[in-house]
Amino acid sequence: MRPLLIGLFALCLATSSSAHAQSSDAQGKQLFIEGVTLFEQGAYGDALQRFQASYAVAPLPVVLYNLGLTHAELKDPVSAVLALERVLQSPGNLKPQRQRKAKQVLAEQRALLGHLNVQVEPSATIHIDGKQVSATKPLPVRAGELLLEATLEGKKPFRKAVRVEPGQTVELAIEFEPLASKLAQVRVMSQLPGADILIDGLLVGRTPLISSLGVEPGSHRLELRRAGYVPRAETLVLAEGGSAEIALELEQDRSQAATSKIRVALTVDPTDAAVFVNGTLQTDPTDLQLPLGPHKLRLERSGYLTMTLPLELDGTKAELRRLVVLTPLPEEVQRRRDERDRDQIAGFAALGTGSLFALTGAILLGSNTLNRQEVSELSTDSDNNTGSFAVCDVATPARAKACTAETLALLDLENLTLGLDIGGAIALVLGVGAAVTGGVIAAGAEDLSRYESRPVEDWAILPSIELNQQGFRVGAVGRF
Questions:
Q1: Of 62, 126, 273, 319, which is most buried, counting CB atoms within 10 Å of its CB?
Q2: 347 and 441 in contact (C-beta within 8 Å)?
Q3: Cα 231 to Cα 198: distance, rounded to the nearest angstrom
Q4: Which residues pair with 462 in a beta bridge?
Q5: How many Å apart are CA 43 and CA 296, to the nearest integer?
Q6: pLDDT below 50 — which residues of the chain?
Q7: pLDDT digits 0-9 by tens, 346-382
């Protein structure tokens, strides 16, 4: 009895693990598909989040490959190199063309790197451009101007703007000054990207700021600046060891010359999507006047993937036109598919019914030809008192009665013929109208093929269950 119970327990656990693996696979695959869709639209920040979530569920080479490409598009060569090196070390069954692409992008991203050789106490925390990094030696960094911050418990924060050229290694020795009190933490938030954050006139970071800033307790002047916008400053009073969170938004400088602005015309599908530029809802996205520099677009609509797009205005063009097509969520696609099916059913029903009515009308009109011919002939006989109407030529009671009967019969035939003509014409017109309308409805149903689930190459994760006398093993096998 005991082996049976153990076997049943093992089977239940294996079944549960199998269902969990399949659920994880479906979740990871859906996140991956959303990431690919957002990447293709240029929403690299949103795509990165989807790929990271997908990789956490299913760490497949194809996901890591896409993570590397996304980091490259986000101008983060350090993360791009790390991801692409890892995927090339263990490519699994990543397709050869993808491996070649990974090697190409890896070489390009390595060429964008420099190094910092930071001499600092091991327990110090280092941030570069607001992102915490490990104090490896030498530390790979993005070439260009960097904002470095180093903090250490009981010491004043060390901040310095450092310029690193591609392939260059910059030596930097950090010496901390003693601090009599514990640092306060300040988190600065702004929807406007690329704005300088200054504390007491010293540049300490740029938006968006990922982490908080360590600041000595006391009163400080916090300022946000960016060309094309009116600067804004706030006074902060920070307690020892305390924290503050402040949101600052800048308004455009309306006095700025028009030559330092770019006209941006956005065409959005669907047209009723909400468009935000640097966090501000736009009433007319087809006519925007924006200062030079980076901007952030966010597009939202119920039933669609929210999309955040970077917009870099460098002044090379006086006007920028862009089409943005939002991607419907699976639930929205299913709703539209149901709506399309209903339209097609109604359209084909109208087409069939209308065709039947039109055919019936045509048959009535065609078969009524003999009646019309007979009415014409009888009307001629009635006018000439010939044929069956010869009885009307002599006025005798018997012939008058017969003449009346023939006249009434002709009248009945005329009414029947007229009724059939009217009914046939109405049936023909209505039938043709219904058939045309139904055909237009059926043919005009929305084509949803572009939203059909596309196959995900290099993707596979399957539950693995092994049950024998020695015990059981549950796991997953696939293209890792």
A1: 62
A2: yes
A3: 11
A4: 477
A5: 10
A6: 1-16, 461-480
A7: 888 888 898 898 888 888 888 878 888 878 888 887 7
**Buried residues in 154-180 as b, exposed as e (16+ CB within 10 A):** ebbbbbeebebeeeeebebebebeebe
CA 192 to chain centre: 22
Q: How far apart are CA 467 and CA 11, in angstroms?
A: 8
Architecture of domain 258-327: Sandwich (2.60)
* Cβ contacts of 329 within 8 Å, gap of 6 or more: 303, 304, 305
Contacts 24+ apart (CB under 8 A), 370-373: 371/413, 371/416, 371/417, 371/420, 372/417, 372/421
Q: Rounded to an integer, what distance in angstroms lies between the CA atom of residue 418 and that of residue 475?
A: 82
Q: Contact at 8 Å (CB) between 238 and 215?
A: yes
Say if CB 461 and CB 28 are below 8 A apart: yes
Question: Residue 459: what pLDDT?
Answer: 65
Domain boundaries, the chain: 2-110, 115-247, 258-327, 331-447
Q: Quick one: pLDDT at residue 99?
A: 94
Query: How far apart are the two ends of the chain, measured CA to CA in Å?
Result: 40
The pLDDT assigned to 20 comes to 55
Diameter over CA atoms, the chain: 142
Tell me the three state secondary structure of residue 329: coil
pLDDT of 351: 85
What is the per-residue burial (b if ≥16 Cβ within 10 Å, else e) of 184-213? bbbebebbbbbbbbbbeeeebbbbbbeebb
Torsion of CA 405, 407, 412, 413, to 10 degrees: 120
Q: Quote the pTM value.
A: 0.73
**79 with 71: CB under 8 angstroms?**
yes
The C-alpha atoms of residue 205 and residue 248 are separated, in whole angstroms, by 14
> What pLDDT was estimated at residue 454?
59
SS3 state at 74 = coil
Query: What is the per-residue pLDDT across 148-197, written as a single tens digit (0 to 9) for each?
Result: 999 888 888 999 999 999 999 999 999 998 888 888 999 999 999 999 99
The length of the chain in residues reads 480
Q: What is the DSSP string of 360-429?
A: HHHHHHHHTHHHHHHHHHHHHHHHHT-GGGGGGSS--HHHHHHHHHHHHHHHHHHHHHHHHHHHHHHHHH
| Upstream peptide bond of 294 is cis (omega within 30 degrees of 0) | no
- Angstrom distance (rounded) from CA 340 to CA 274: 25
Residue type for position 10: A
